[in-house]
Here is the input.
Amino acid sequence: MNILVCIKQVPDMEASFVPNRGGTWFDETALSFRMNDYDEFAIEAAVRIKEQLGGTPEVTALSIGPGRVVEVIRKAMAMGCDRGVHLRDEEAASLDPWQIASMISGYASTGGFDLIFTGMQSVDRGSAQVGVLVAERLAIACVTTAVGFSYMAGRATVERELEGGAKVVVSCALPLLVTCQLGLNTPRYPTLPGILRAKKKEIVELSPGQAGMEKPLTRVSGFSHHVSRPSGVVLEGRLDELAGRVAAVLREKRDAIRRGGVR
Amino acid sequence: MKVLLVAEYRQGRLAESTSELLGFADALGGDVSMALVGSPDQLPGFDGRLHFADAGIYGEYDSELHKRLLLQAVEAETPDLIVFMHSSYGWDLAPRISAALGVALLSGVAGMDGDGFTTRCCNGKMRRTVTAMTSPAVLTLLPGAFPSVQPEGVSPELHPMAASGVPVVEFIRYEPPSTGGIDLTRSDVIVCAGRGVGSREKVGLVRALADALGGEVGATRPVVDAGWLEHGRQIGSTGQSVSPGLYVACGVSGAIQHLAGMKGSGFVIALNTDRDAPIVEVADLLVVADLEEFLPLLTAKLGS
Here is the structure.
Protein backbone atom coordinates (compact mmCIF):
# COMPACT_ATOMS: atom_id res chain seq x y z
CA MET A 1 0.00 0.00 0.00
CA ASN A 2 1.18 3.51 -0.85
CA ILE A 3 0.06 6.47 1.23
CA LEU A 4 0.60 10.16 0.48
CA VAL A 5 0.27 12.94 3.04
CA CYS A 6 0.16 16.54 1.84
CA ILE A 7 1.46 19.08 4.34
CA LYS A 8 1.92 22.83 4.39
CA GLN A 9 4.16 25.11 6.39
CA VAL A 10 2.32 28.14 7.76
CA PRO A 11 3.18 31.08 10.00
CA ASP A 12 2.21 31.20 13.63
CA MET A 13 -1.30 32.69 13.55
CA GLU A 14 -0.71 34.74 16.70
CA ALA A 15 1.80 36.85 14.76
CA SER A 16 1.17 40.35 13.44
CA PHE A 17 0.93 40.28 9.67
CA VAL A 18 2.32 42.94 7.37
CA PRO A 19 1.43 42.96 3.65
CA ASN A 20 4.28 42.25 1.23
CA ARG A 21 5.47 44.77 -1.32
CA GLY A 22 3.01 43.63 -3.97
CA GLY A 23 0.13 43.78 -1.49
CA THR A 24 -0.91 40.23 -2.32
CA TRP A 25 0.09 38.23 0.80
CA PHE A 26 2.05 38.68 4.00
CA ASP A 27 5.70 39.65 4.25
CA GLU A 28 7.57 36.66 5.64
CA THR A 29 10.55 38.45 7.15
CA ALA A 30 9.59 38.57 10.83
CA LEU A 31 7.46 35.41 10.89
CA SER A 32 8.21 32.02 12.38
CA PHE A 33 6.85 29.00 10.55
CA ARG A 34 5.46 25.66 11.66
CA MET A 35 3.31 22.81 10.38
CA ASN A 36 -0.32 23.56 9.48
CA ASP A 37 -2.39 22.28 12.44
CA TYR A 38 -4.74 20.16 10.31
CA ASP A 39 -1.84 18.38 8.61
CA GLU A 40 -0.58 16.90 11.88
CA PHE A 41 -3.82 14.91 12.05
CA ALA A 42 -3.30 13.80 8.44
CA ILE A 43 0.20 12.51 9.23
CA GLU A 44 -1.02 10.72 12.35
CA ALA A 45 -3.83 9.02 10.39
CA ALA A 46 -1.34 7.79 7.77
CA VAL A 47 1.23 6.55 10.28
CA ARG A 48 -1.46 4.68 12.24
CA ILE A 49 -2.43 2.70 9.13
CA LYS A 50 1.22 1.88 8.54
CA GLU A 51 1.42 0.55 12.10
CA GLN A 52 -1.89 -1.29 11.82
CA LEU A 53 -0.64 -3.11 8.72
CA GLY A 54 2.66 -4.12 10.28
CA GLY A 55 4.75 -1.41 8.68
CA THR A 56 4.27 -2.52 5.07
CA PRO A 57 2.64 0.65 3.66
CA GLU A 58 5.08 3.29 2.49
CA VAL A 59 4.11 6.78 3.60
CA THR A 60 5.30 9.76 1.55
CA ALA A 61 5.06 13.31 2.91
CA LEU A 62 4.77 16.04 0.26
CA SER A 63 5.10 19.77 0.72
CA ILE A 64 5.17 22.71 -1.68
CA GLY A 65 7.15 25.84 -0.99
CA PRO A 66 10.55 27.45 -0.62
CA GLY A 67 13.58 25.83 1.02
CA ARG A 68 12.21 26.31 4.54
CA VAL A 69 9.42 23.74 4.05
CA VAL A 70 12.01 20.97 4.37
CA GLU A 71 11.56 21.54 8.14
CA VAL A 72 7.96 20.26 8.07
CA ILE A 73 8.88 17.37 5.78
CA ARG A 74 11.55 16.36 8.32
CA LYS A 75 9.01 16.66 11.12
CA ALA A 76 6.59 14.44 9.18
CA MET A 77 9.36 11.89 8.74
CA ALA A 78 10.20 12.12 12.44
CA MET A 79 6.54 11.30 13.13
CA GLY A 80 6.85 8.17 11.00
CA CYS A 81 6.61 9.05 7.30
CA ASP A 82 9.11 7.09 5.21
CA ARG A 83 10.12 9.56 2.54
CA GLY A 84 9.65 13.16 1.51
CA VAL A 85 8.83 15.02 -1.67
CA HIS A 86 9.62 18.71 -1.88
CA LEU A 87 7.94 20.53 -4.76
CA ARG A 88 10.30 23.47 -4.57
CA ASP A 89 8.93 26.85 -5.52
CA GLU A 90 10.25 30.02 -3.90
CA GLU A 91 7.09 31.84 -5.03
CA ALA A 92 4.60 29.21 -3.83
CA ALA A 93 2.72 31.76 -1.71
CA SER A 94 1.61 33.50 -4.92
CA LEU A 95 0.04 30.33 -6.36
CA ASP A 96 -3.70 29.72 -6.24
CA PRO A 97 -5.40 26.50 -5.06
CA TRP A 98 -5.82 25.29 -8.63
CA GLN A 99 -2.06 25.49 -9.23
CA ILE A 100 -1.25 23.79 -5.93
CA ALA A 101 -3.74 21.01 -6.76
CA SER A 102 -2.32 20.65 -10.29
CA MET A 103 1.14 19.98 -8.86
CA ILE A 104 0.01 17.54 -6.18
CA SER A 105 -2.16 15.59 -8.62
CA GLY A 106 0.60 15.76 -11.22
CA TYR A 107 3.01 14.16 -8.79
CA ALA A 108 0.45 11.74 -7.29
CA SER A 109 -0.64 10.44 -10.71
CA THR A 110 2.81 8.85 -11.06
CA GLY A 111 2.87 7.32 -7.57
CA GLY A 112 -0.01 4.85 -7.51
CA PHE A 113 -1.28 6.03 -4.13
CA ASP A 114 -4.07 4.07 -2.46
CA LEU A 115 -4.72 6.64 0.21
CA ILE A 116 -4.06 10.36 0.27
CA PHE A 117 -4.47 12.45 3.41
CA THR A 118 -4.56 16.25 3.48
CA GLY A 119 -5.54 18.79 6.07
CA MET A 120 -9.12 19.98 5.70
CA GLN A 121 -7.72 23.48 5.12
CA SER A 122 -4.67 25.58 5.92
CA VAL A 123 -4.84 27.96 8.86
CA ASP A 124 -3.42 30.88 6.89
CA ARG A 125 -5.49 30.77 3.70
CA GLY A 126 -8.35 28.50 4.70
CA SER A 127 -9.65 27.75 1.20
CA ALA A 128 -10.53 24.12 2.03
CA GLN A 129 -10.44 23.20 -1.66
CA VAL A 130 -7.03 21.75 -2.56
CA GLY A 131 -7.74 18.23 -1.26
CA VAL A 132 -11.00 17.84 -3.16
CA LEU A 133 -9.46 19.34 -6.33
CA VAL A 134 -6.62 16.80 -6.15
CA ALA A 135 -9.07 13.89 -5.80
CA GLU A 136 -11.22 15.11 -8.68
CA ARG A 137 -8.20 15.57 -10.91
CA LEU A 138 -7.05 12.04 -10.05
CA ALA A 139 -10.65 10.76 -10.48
CA ILE A 140 -10.59 9.06 -7.09
CA ALA A 141 -13.13 9.19 -4.25
CA CYS A 142 -12.86 11.93 -1.66
CA VAL A 143 -14.34 12.39 1.80
CA THR A 144 -13.90 15.76 3.50
CA THR A 145 -13.76 16.97 7.11
CA ALA A 146 -12.90 13.62 8.70
CA VAL A 147 -13.20 13.42 12.49
CA GLY A 148 -13.03 9.63 12.53
CA PHE A 149 -11.17 7.16 10.30
CA SER A 150 -10.67 3.42 10.24
CA TYR A 151 -9.37 1.05 7.60
CA MET A 152 -10.06 -2.62 7.06
CA ALA A 153 -9.63 -4.94 4.09
CA GLY A 154 -9.53 -2.38 1.30
CA ARG A 155 -12.30 -0.16 2.67
CA ALA A 156 -12.25 2.94 4.81
CA THR A 157 -14.97 4.04 7.20
CA VAL A 158 -14.95 7.78 7.73
CA GLU A 159 -16.89 10.02 10.08
CA ARG A 160 -17.52 13.42 8.47
CA GLU A 161 -18.21 16.43 10.64
CA LEU A 162 -21.40 18.32 9.81
CA GLU A 163 -22.86 21.54 11.18
CA GLY A 164 -23.92 21.78 14.81
CA GLY A 165 -21.68 18.91 15.92
CA ALA A 166 -23.59 16.21 14.02
CA LYS A 167 -21.68 13.61 12.01
CA VAL A 168 -22.29 11.35 9.07
CA VAL A 169 -20.61 7.96 8.79
CA VAL A 170 -19.67 6.83 5.29
CA SER A 171 -17.77 3.91 3.83
CA CYS A 172 -15.60 3.87 0.72
CA ALA A 173 -13.25 1.56 -1.17
CA LEU A 174 -9.69 2.68 -1.90
CA PRO A 175 -8.23 4.61 -3.64
CA LEU A 176 -9.48 7.46 -1.52
CA LEU A 177 -8.48 10.98 -0.51
CA VAL A 178 -9.45 12.13 2.99
CA THR A 179 -9.29 15.73 4.23
CA CYS A 180 -8.65 15.79 7.98
CA GLN A 181 -10.43 17.98 10.51
CA LEU A 182 -8.93 19.00 13.86
CA GLY A 183 -9.58 16.37 16.51
CA LEU A 184 -9.44 13.38 14.11
CA ASN A 185 -6.87 11.74 16.37
CA THR A 186 -4.10 12.73 18.77
CA PRO A 187 -1.02 13.57 16.69
CA ARG A 188 2.16 12.17 18.23
CA TYR A 189 5.20 14.24 19.12
CA PRO A 190 8.36 13.32 17.25
CA THR A 191 10.69 11.30 19.48
CA LEU A 192 14.47 11.78 19.58
CA PRO A 193 15.10 8.44 17.78
CA GLY A 194 12.43 9.47 15.29
CA ILE A 195 14.16 12.79 14.68
CA LEU A 196 17.50 11.05 14.21
CA ARG A 197 16.02 8.52 11.79
CA ALA A 198 14.31 11.33 9.85
CA LYS A 199 17.69 12.90 9.08
CA LYS A 200 18.66 9.82 7.09
CA LYS A 201 15.44 9.56 5.11
CA GLU A 202 15.30 10.64 1.49
CA ILE A 203 13.70 13.87 0.29
CA VAL A 204 13.16 14.10 -3.45
CA GLU A 205 13.13 17.64 -4.82
CA LEU A 206 11.02 18.44 -7.89
CA SER A 207 10.37 21.67 -9.75
CA PRO A 208 6.83 22.98 -10.37
CA GLY A 209 7.29 22.16 -14.06
CA GLN A 210 8.23 18.56 -13.30
CA ALA A 211 5.05 18.26 -11.22
CA GLY A 212 2.91 19.68 -14.03
CA MET A 213 1.95 23.07 -12.62
CA GLU A 214 -0.87 24.74 -14.54
CA LYS A 215 -1.83 28.40 -14.96
CA PRO A 216 -3.76 30.21 -12.20
CA LEU A 217 -7.53 30.67 -12.36
CA THR A 218 -7.67 33.54 -9.86
CA ARG A 219 -5.88 36.82 -9.31
CA VAL A 220 -5.24 38.52 -5.97
CA SER A 221 -5.56 42.29 -6.00
CA GLY A 222 -5.52 43.14 -2.33
CA PHE A 223 -4.29 41.98 1.06
CA SER A 224 -4.82 44.13 4.10
CA HIS A 225 -5.76 44.13 7.75
CA HIS A 226 -9.35 43.36 8.44
CA VAL A 227 -10.14 46.45 10.45
CA SER A 228 -12.24 45.49 13.44
CA ARG A 229 -13.95 48.59 14.72
CA PRO A 230 -15.22 48.35 18.29
CA SER A 231 -18.99 48.58 18.17
CA GLY A 232 -19.38 49.47 21.83
CA VAL A 233 -17.54 51.04 24.73
CA VAL A 234 -13.84 50.34 25.23
CA LEU A 235 -12.50 50.23 28.78
CA GLU A 236 -8.85 50.10 29.76
CA GLY A 237 -6.64 51.31 32.55
CA ARG A 238 -5.81 50.16 36.08
CA LEU A 239 -7.03 46.63 36.50
CA ASP A 240 -8.45 46.91 40.03
CA GLU A 241 -10.44 49.98 39.00
CA LEU A 242 -11.61 48.25 35.83
CA ALA A 243 -12.66 45.18 37.80
CA GLY A 244 -14.97 47.29 39.94
CA ARG A 245 -16.59 48.95 36.94
CA VAL A 246 -16.98 45.71 34.96
CA ALA A 247 -18.34 43.88 38.02
CA ALA A 248 -21.00 46.58 38.37
CA VAL A 249 -22.02 46.18 34.72
CA LEU A 250 -22.11 42.39 35.00
CA ARG A 251 -24.20 42.51 38.16
CA GLU A 252 -26.66 44.97 36.63
CA LYS A 253 -27.08 42.91 33.44
CA ARG A 254 -27.41 39.62 35.30
CA ASP A 255 -29.98 41.00 37.73
CA ALA A 256 -31.98 42.50 34.87
CA ILE A 257 -32.01 39.10 33.13
CA ARG A 258 -33.12 37.38 36.34
CA ARG A 259 -36.01 39.83 36.62
CA GLY A 260 -36.87 38.91 33.05
CA GLY A 261 -36.20 42.46 31.89
CA VAL A 262 -33.77 41.74 29.08
CA ARG A 263 -34.02 39.02 26.34
CA MET B 1 -24.96 38.81 -14.26
CA LYS B 2 -26.54 35.34 -13.97
CA VAL B 3 -26.27 33.69 -10.57
CA LEU B 4 -27.03 30.05 -9.76
CA LEU B 5 -27.50 29.51 -6.01
CA VAL B 6 -27.03 26.00 -4.60
CA ALA B 7 -29.29 25.39 -1.61
CA GLU B 8 -28.82 22.58 0.92
CA TYR B 9 -31.11 19.98 2.40
CA ARG B 10 -30.24 17.33 4.98
CA GLN B 11 -32.14 15.02 7.30
CA GLY B 12 -35.51 16.35 6.30
CA ARG B 13 -34.65 20.04 6.50
CA LEU B 14 -33.95 22.78 4.02
CA ALA B 15 -30.90 24.66 5.39
CA GLU B 16 -31.64 28.03 6.97
CA SER B 17 -28.61 29.38 5.14
CA THR B 18 -30.71 29.42 1.94
CA SER B 19 -31.73 32.91 3.07
CA GLU B 20 -28.08 34.00 3.10
CA LEU B 21 -27.64 32.79 -0.49
CA LEU B 22 -30.64 34.95 -1.40
CA GLY B 23 -29.16 37.84 0.59
CA PHE B 24 -25.95 37.55 -1.41
CA ALA B 25 -27.89 37.46 -4.70
CA ASP B 26 -29.84 40.54 -3.60
CA ALA B 27 -26.63 42.42 -2.83
CA LEU B 28 -25.16 41.43 -6.18
CA GLY B 29 -28.26 41.94 -8.33
CA GLY B 30 -28.92 40.14 -11.60
CA ASP B 31 -30.81 37.09 -12.83
CA VAL B 32 -31.07 34.53 -10.03
CA SER B 33 -31.82 30.81 -10.28
CA MET B 34 -31.41 28.05 -7.74
CA ALA B 35 -30.60 24.34 -7.57
CA LEU B 36 -31.64 21.98 -4.79
CA VAL B 37 -31.64 18.27 -4.06
CA GLY B 38 -34.36 18.39 -1.45
CA SER B 39 -37.94 17.69 -0.56
CA PRO B 40 -40.97 18.86 -2.56
CA ASP B 41 -42.57 19.59 0.83
CA GLN B 42 -39.87 22.09 1.74
CA LEU B 43 -39.24 24.31 -1.22
CA PRO B 44 -37.48 27.62 -0.65
CA GLY B 45 -39.52 30.82 -0.77
CA PHE B 46 -37.96 32.00 -3.99
CA ASP B 47 -39.40 33.63 -7.06
CA GLY B 48 -37.43 32.08 -9.91
CA ARG B 49 -36.29 28.91 -11.65
CA LEU B 50 -35.50 26.08 -9.24
CA HIS B 51 -33.59 23.13 -10.66
CA PHE B 52 -34.87 20.40 -8.43
CA ALA B 53 -34.24 16.73 -7.66
CA ASP B 54 -36.09 14.80 -4.97
CA ALA B 55 -33.84 13.65 -2.10
CA GLY B 56 -36.50 10.98 -1.48
CA ILE B 57 -35.29 9.36 -4.71
CA TYR B 58 -31.60 10.29 -4.63
CA GLY B 59 -31.00 9.52 -0.96
CA GLU B 60 -28.51 11.14 1.39
CA TYR B 61 -25.74 13.35 0.05
CA ASP B 62 -23.58 11.57 -2.46
CA SER B 63 -20.89 13.81 -3.89
CA GLU B 64 -20.71 12.13 -7.29
CA LEU B 65 -24.48 12.12 -7.84
CA HIS B 66 -24.96 15.69 -6.63
CA LYS B 67 -22.12 16.83 -8.87
CA ARG B 68 -23.82 15.28 -11.91
CA LEU B 69 -27.19 16.76 -10.99
CA LEU B 70 -25.74 20.21 -10.46
CA LEU B 71 -23.83 20.17 -13.72
CA GLN B 72 -27.22 19.85 -15.45
CA ALA B 73 -28.46 23.00 -13.77
CA VAL B 74 -25.22 24.73 -14.77
CA GLU B 75 -25.69 23.62 -18.36
CA ALA B 76 -29.30 24.85 -18.40
CA GLU B 77 -28.56 28.20 -16.78
CA THR B 78 -25.08 29.03 -18.15
CA PRO B 79 -24.54 31.17 -15.02
CA ASP B 80 -21.69 33.62 -14.43
CA LEU B 81 -21.51 32.58 -10.77
CA ILE B 82 -22.33 29.28 -9.07
CA VAL B 83 -22.77 30.02 -5.38
CA PHE B 84 -22.63 27.65 -2.39
CA MET B 85 -22.44 28.27 1.33
CA HIS B 86 -19.01 27.58 2.88
CA SER B 87 -20.44 24.62 4.78
CA SER B 88 -19.76 20.90 5.04
CA TYR B 89 -21.90 20.58 1.89
CA GLY B 90 -20.42 23.55 0.07
CA TRP B 91 -16.73 22.93 0.67
CA ASP B 92 -17.25 19.29 -0.28
CA LEU B 93 -19.16 19.90 -3.50
CA ALA B 94 -17.97 23.29 -4.81
CA PRO B 95 -14.41 22.10 -5.65
CA ARG B 96 -15.90 19.17 -7.58
CA ILE B 97 -17.90 21.60 -9.75
CA SER B 98 -14.82 23.80 -10.12
CA ALA B 99 -12.74 20.78 -11.23
CA ALA B 100 -15.42 19.41 -13.56
CA LEU B 101 -15.73 22.77 -15.34
CA GLY B 102 -12.06 23.74 -14.99
CA VAL B 103 -13.08 27.08 -13.49
CA ALA B 104 -12.03 29.24 -10.54
CA LEU B 105 -13.32 28.63 -7.03
CA LEU B 106 -13.25 31.45 -4.48
CA SER B 107 -13.73 29.99 -1.00
CA GLY B 108 -15.19 31.69 2.04
CA VAL B 109 -16.37 34.89 0.34
CA ALA B 110 -17.29 37.53 2.94
CA GLY B 111 -17.88 40.59 0.75
CA MET B 112 -17.55 42.27 -2.62
CA ASP B 113 -14.79 44.57 -3.79
CA GLY B 114 -14.97 45.97 -7.33
CA ASP B 115 -15.03 43.06 -9.74
CA GLY B 116 -13.56 40.79 -7.07
CA PHE B 117 -14.63 39.28 -3.79
CA THR B 118 -13.11 39.60 -0.34
CA THR B 119 -12.19 36.59 1.76
CA ARG B 120 -10.83 36.41 5.30
CA CYS B 121 -7.55 34.75 6.11
CA CYS B 122 -4.94 34.42 8.87
CA ASN B 123 -7.48 33.75 11.64
CA GLY B 124 -9.79 36.49 10.41
CA LYS B 125 -7.12 39.14 11.00
CA MET B 126 -6.46 39.79 7.32
CA ARG B 127 -8.60 40.09 4.22
CA ARG B 128 -7.80 39.38 0.58
CA THR B 129 -9.47 40.57 -2.59
CA VAL B 130 -9.57 37.75 -5.12
CA THR B 131 -10.87 37.91 -8.68
CA ALA B 132 -11.82 34.92 -10.81
CA MET B 133 -10.15 34.77 -14.22
CA THR B 134 -12.75 32.35 -15.58
CA SER B 135 -16.44 32.50 -16.35
CA PRO B 136 -18.33 30.94 -14.82
CA ALA B 137 -16.71 31.04 -11.39
CA VAL B 138 -17.70 29.11 -8.29
CA LEU B 139 -18.04 30.78 -4.88
CA THR B 140 -18.62 29.58 -1.33
CA LEU B 141 -20.03 32.19 1.08
CA LEU B 142 -18.85 32.50 4.66
CA PRO B 143 -21.84 31.85 6.94
CA GLY B 144 -23.00 35.02 8.64
CA ALA B 145 -21.30 37.34 6.15
CA PHE B 146 -24.41 38.22 4.13
CA PRO B 147 -27.84 39.25 5.42
CA SER B 148 -30.74 36.84 5.42
CA VAL B 149 -33.45 37.48 2.85
CA GLN B 150 -36.65 35.46 3.08
CA PRO B 151 -39.19 36.36 0.41
CA GLU B 152 -42.72 35.47 1.45
CA GLY B 153 -45.71 34.36 -0.55
CA VAL B 154 -43.65 33.33 -3.54
CA SER B 155 -42.86 29.89 -4.92
CA PRO B 156 -40.27 28.74 -7.42
CA GLU B 157 -40.79 27.47 -10.93
CA LEU B 158 -39.61 23.83 -10.90
CA HIS B 159 -37.25 22.37 -13.48
CA PRO B 160 -36.42 18.72 -12.79
CA MET B 161 -32.83 17.45 -12.64
CA ALA B 162 -32.09 13.73 -13.06
CA ALA B 163 -28.99 11.56 -12.89
CA SER B 164 -28.10 7.94 -12.31
CA GLY B 165 -25.18 5.96 -11.01
CA VAL B 166 -23.96 3.94 -8.08
CA PRO B 167 -22.63 5.94 -5.13
CA VAL B 168 -18.84 5.82 -4.77
CA VAL B 169 -19.08 6.81 -1.12
CA GLU B 170 -21.66 4.74 0.73
CA PHE B 171 -23.86 6.44 3.32
CA ILE B 172 -24.10 4.45 6.57
CA ARG B 173 -25.75 6.63 9.21
CA TYR B 174 -26.02 10.02 10.85
CA GLU B 175 -24.83 10.59 14.39
CA PRO B 176 -26.44 13.31 16.47
CA PRO B 177 -24.26 15.90 18.21
CA SER B 178 -22.65 14.51 21.35
CA THR B 179 -23.04 17.33 23.84
CA GLY B 180 -22.60 15.10 26.87
CA GLY B 181 -25.93 16.38 28.16
CA ILE B 182 -24.73 19.99 28.30
CA ASP B 183 -27.40 22.32 26.94
CA LEU B 184 -26.10 25.87 26.66
CA THR B 185 -29.05 27.00 24.58
CA ARG B 186 -31.15 27.61 27.69
CA SER B 187 -28.48 29.54 29.63
CA ASP B 188 -29.11 33.19 30.48
CA VAL B 189 -25.47 33.87 31.26
CA ILE B 190 -22.53 32.32 29.42
CA VAL B 191 -18.85 32.95 30.07
CA CYS B 192 -16.89 31.69 27.09
CA ALA B 193 -13.23 30.66 27.09
CA GLY B 194 -11.20 31.34 23.96
CA ARG B 195 -7.64 30.41 23.11
CA GLY B 196 -6.51 33.74 24.57
CA VAL B 197 -7.14 32.30 28.02
CA GLY B 198 -3.73 30.77 27.56
CA SER B 199 -3.76 27.27 29.03
CA ARG B 200 -5.89 24.46 30.40
CA GLU B 201 -5.07 25.52 33.96
CA LYS B 202 -6.29 29.08 33.41
CA VAL B 203 -9.69 27.85 32.22
CA GLY B 204 -10.37 27.58 35.98
CA LEU B 205 -10.37 31.40 36.14
CA VAL B 206 -13.15 31.45 33.53
CA ARG B 207 -15.10 28.82 35.44
CA ALA B 208 -14.80 30.85 38.64
CA LEU B 209 -16.24 33.92 36.91
CA ALA B 210 -19.11 31.84 35.49
CA ASP B 211 -19.83 30.46 38.96
CA ALA B 212 -19.81 33.95 40.48
CA LEU B 213 -22.35 35.04 37.86
CA GLY B 214 -24.43 31.89 38.14
CA GLY B 215 -23.78 31.13 34.48
CA GLU B 216 -22.45 28.34 32.28
CA VAL B 217 -18.98 27.96 30.78
CA GLY B 218 -18.77 27.92 26.98
CA ALA B 219 -15.78 27.34 24.73
CA THR B 220 -14.48 28.14 21.28
CA ARG B 221 -13.42 25.42 18.91
CA PRO B 222 -9.64 25.77 19.50
CA VAL B 223 -10.20 25.43 23.26
CA VAL B 224 -12.22 22.25 22.78
CA ASP B 225 -9.75 20.82 20.26
CA ALA B 226 -6.93 21.48 22.70
CA GLY B 227 -8.85 19.44 25.27
CA TRP B 228 -9.15 22.33 27.76
CA LEU B 229 -12.95 21.91 27.90
CA GLU B 230 -15.34 19.18 26.76
CA HIS B 231 -16.89 19.18 23.27
CA GLY B 232 -20.38 19.74 24.64
CA ARG B 233 -19.38 23.29 25.61
CA GLN B 234 -18.42 24.39 22.13
CA ILE B 235 -20.25 27.42 20.76
CA GLY B 236 -20.26 28.15 17.03
CA SER B 237 -21.24 26.74 13.67
CA THR B 238 -19.93 23.27 14.58
CA GLY B 239 -21.15 23.51 18.18
CA GLN B 240 -24.18 24.92 19.91
CA SER B 241 -25.98 28.12 18.89
CA VAL B 242 -26.72 30.17 21.98
CA SER B 243 -28.65 33.33 22.78
CA PRO B 244 -28.05 34.25 26.44
CA GLY B 245 -28.94 37.65 27.84
CA LEU B 246 -25.32 38.11 28.90
CA TYR B 247 -22.31 36.77 27.04
CA VAL B 248 -18.80 37.25 28.43
CA ALA B 249 -16.09 36.38 25.90
CA CYS B 250 -12.73 35.74 27.59
CA GLY B 251 -9.79 35.70 25.18
CA VAL B 252 -12.11 34.94 22.26
CA SER B 253 -10.79 36.24 18.94
CA GLY B 254 -14.19 36.05 17.25
CA ALA B 255 -13.80 33.83 14.20
CA ILE B 256 -16.92 34.11 12.03
CA GLN B 257 -17.75 30.47 12.79
CA HIS B 258 -17.86 31.35 16.49
CA LEU B 259 -19.82 34.57 16.00
CA ALA B 260 -22.41 32.58 14.03
CA GLY B 261 -23.13 30.59 17.20
CA MET B 262 -23.54 33.54 19.60
CA LYS B 263 -24.98 36.32 17.44
CA GLY B 264 -28.33 36.05 19.22
CA SER B 265 -26.78 37.07 22.55
CA GLY B 266 -28.11 40.11 24.40
CA PHE B 267 -25.28 42.06 26.06
CA VAL B 268 -21.78 41.04 24.97
CA ILE B 269 -18.65 41.81 26.98
CA ALA B 270 -15.27 40.97 25.49
CA LEU B 271 -12.24 40.64 27.73
CA ASN B 272 -9.20 40.70 25.50
CA THR B 273 -5.68 42.06 25.18
CA ASP B 274 -6.04 42.30 21.40
CA ARG B 275 -8.22 45.28 20.52
CA ASP B 276 -8.01 44.32 16.83
CA ALA B 277 -9.71 40.95 17.32
CA PRO B 278 -12.96 40.58 15.31
CA ILE B 279 -14.89 39.94 18.56
CA VAL B 280 -14.76 43.68 19.28
CA GLU B 281 -17.17 44.25 16.39
CA VAL B 282 -19.97 42.50 18.23
CA ALA B 283 -19.04 43.52 21.79
CA ASP B 284 -21.12 46.10 23.63
CA LEU B 285 -18.22 46.48 26.02
CA LEU B 286 -14.56 45.73 25.31
CA VAL B 287 -12.27 45.46 28.33
CA VAL B 288 -8.61 45.58 27.36
CA ALA B 289 -6.92 43.56 30.07
CA ASP B 290 -4.62 40.63 30.73
CA LEU B 291 -6.95 37.80 31.70
CA GLU B 292 -4.66 36.05 34.17
CA GLU B 293 -4.51 39.20 36.28
CA PHE B 294 -7.95 40.59 35.58
CA LEU B 295 -10.25 37.58 35.97
CA PRO B 296 -9.44 36.91 39.66
CA LEU B 297 -9.93 40.63 40.46
CA LEU B 298 -13.27 40.66 38.65
CA THR B 299 -14.50 37.45 40.25
CA ALA B 300 -13.50 38.76 43.69
CA LYS B 301 -15.45 42.00 43.12
CA LEU B 302 -18.53 40.00 42.16
CA GLY B 303 -18.27 37.93 45.30
CA SER B 304 -18.03 40.90 47.59
User: Anything to note?
Assistant: Residues 101 and 134 of chain A are 5 Å apart (CA to CA).
